[in-house]
Amino acid sequence: MEFVKESLTFTGEDSPMAHLLLSVMGAFAEFERALILERQREGIAAAKARGAYTGRKPALTTEQADLLRARAAAGVPKAALAREFGVSRETVYAYLRAETVTA
Predict the structure, then answer these.
(1) Separation CA 91–CA 78 (nearest Å)
(2) What residues have CB less than 8 Å from 98, skipping those under 6 apart?
């Protein structure tokens, strides 16, 4: 393994000092990554607080979702419902699963 910027080369037969340097460099890399992730979480929390991070809008209104569930309960095929409401079949199944969770 070679670090060009630091002019360090590590082989399989390294000295204890080389092993220590590699371990310290790895620890700093982990620390830096943890700081980046922490700043990212803080940024997302701040965006959510100001309302800029709301996520995707629902594909169907509440009325449409209720109608979809009623038609599915009546035996209408899921593929036909997906075409009718302009969504994918997976979206139809997601709305049907949501009904069982909230009901």
Answers:
(1) 10
(2) 65
